[in-house]
Specification:
This protein is of the alpha+beta class. Helices cover 22% and strands 34% of the residues. It is built from three helices and 15 strands. Helix 1 packs antiparallel against helix 3. The relative contact order is 0.22.
């Protein structure tokens, strides 16, 4: 009967891991039927696109804008994909769409323009990837995919410093006439007012889908009933 006691504890720990990860963020946009911030901040503003039950889908040059500035020290953690890969496709714009600099996917690689193309990385069309970008007080930018580091640079010129600008996702800047954008889908976006360490990024729990939360709750309920029945029979 040891299994009945252990499984509820494991499921409860998993639930707490999800909740703890979400609660630690300063802004959490789960994109489950709405653009709201689960942590109480301003909702995202959509430029076109469609909010579905578990993700926001966008065409080229449709995207999302935060209602607050992240400033110069932050972490952005997001799970998304582009439907097809070709040239540059903007992921994050830091300059209120006034500069070509920013985070891109270029073909099948990650790219922070104009700093570096990360040719050792691989992006797959239609396949979600968790991109995390941090910038600390020393202007060091670190880039991660699915929790693993793939790039770092000193941002002495402030290319990744939002300043007073709000973060813009998936919309290309006016500098290139909006040509460098693509269609895709984003599962969630969460941000922190600090630069997470590599260990923290590596252990971040994913934001669970609504169906997964429901299954977790249902599983906890079934196992709790089994444990109660065991006690009654004992």
């Amino acid at each position: 009967m040891k299994t009945i006691r252990v499984l509820p504890a494991a499921l409860l720990a998993l639930a707490c891991g999800f909740a703890g990860s979400a609660a630690a963020a300063d802004h959490l946009y789960q994109l489950n039927g709405n653009l709201d911030d689960s942590d109480g901040g301003p909702a995202l503003v959509a430029s076109g696109g469609t909010v579905g039950a578990s993700a926001y889908s966008f065409a080229a040059n449709q995207g999302l804008t935060m209602g607050v500035s992240l400033g110069s020290v932050y972490t952005i953690d997001m799970n998304f994909h582009f439907d097809a890969l070709s040239g540059y496709q903007k992921v994050i714009d830091f300059s209120a769409l006034a500069s070509d600099a920013g985070m891109y996917v270029l073909g099948s690689n990650w790219n922070f323009f104009p700093v570096q193309n990360y040719s050792a990385t691989t992006v797959v069309a239609g396949q979600d990837a968790r991109l995390t970008i941090t910038r600390d007080a020393a202007s060091t930018v670190n880039l991660y995919v699915n929790g693993a580091a793939f790039g770092t640079f000193n941002d002495s010129t402030g290319l990744a410093d939002f300043g007073a600008n709000n973060a813009v996702f998936f919309i290309d800047d006016a500098h290139t006439g909006g040509r460098e954008a693509g269609a895709g889908s984003v599962d969630y976006i969460r941000t922190y007012d600090r630069a997470l360490t590599a260990d923290q990024v590596g252990t971040l729990a994913p934001v669970p889908e609504p169906a997964n939360i429901a299954m977790l709750i249902a599983g906890l309920g079934v196992l709790a009933m089994a444990a109660r029945r065991q006690r009654q029979q004992g």
